[in-house]
Please model this.
Amino acid sequence: MEKIKYGELSLGEIVASDFRAASLFSKAGIDFCCGGKKTLLQACNEKSLNYEGLEIELNELHNQPVSPSQDFNNWNIAFLADYIVNTHHQYVVKTLPELVFYTQKIATVHGPHHPELIEVAALFAQVNNELLQHLQKEEEVLFPAIKEALKGEAPNAKETIAFEISRMSGEHEFAGGAIDHISVLTNNYSIPEDACNTYLVTLKLLKQFEEDLHIHVHLENNILYPKSLLL
Model:
């Protein structure tokens, strides 16, 4: 069986080549989207994780067939852009209003005993504002420019792609950092003893939102954006 040395590979490269690694990294608390440029060894050292154990698990995955439905790295990038819009953008647009409402509600009700919820609500309100503008720019400017560049029909498409990706990568850093901070504030979405049903639902939705955002940003930062810059 083929054995790969993963230590010096970046997290983004690893997940781009085999999407199944995302679940391993998520369980280990490793950020493979905004932190995708770090090597696996760096990430393990920072979090005091067992690198050898993770490498064994990654090699076990590598020696099993990859489903074509998850082989994002080999997809046509125009198709990948459409997939991101129809899967992740739609999820974000649907979920943002719910989470803005819920985070504000539990901050109002439980804030006196859990002051961290006030900061969570404020942070998520910022995420809401930033992401809605971000998605709109991708759908109306960046993704159409990528499709035009693929066809070779627009002479300015490459300049548009480079400018938009530079700006949007920074927006990813903000959103990812804010959600990571919410995870820290809530002790990784732990349910306190005095939590009501709304509190429980809110933390569950926040955790789901974080998991979706990690995949969403990974597909853009580590696959779509680099390939688009090579057009």
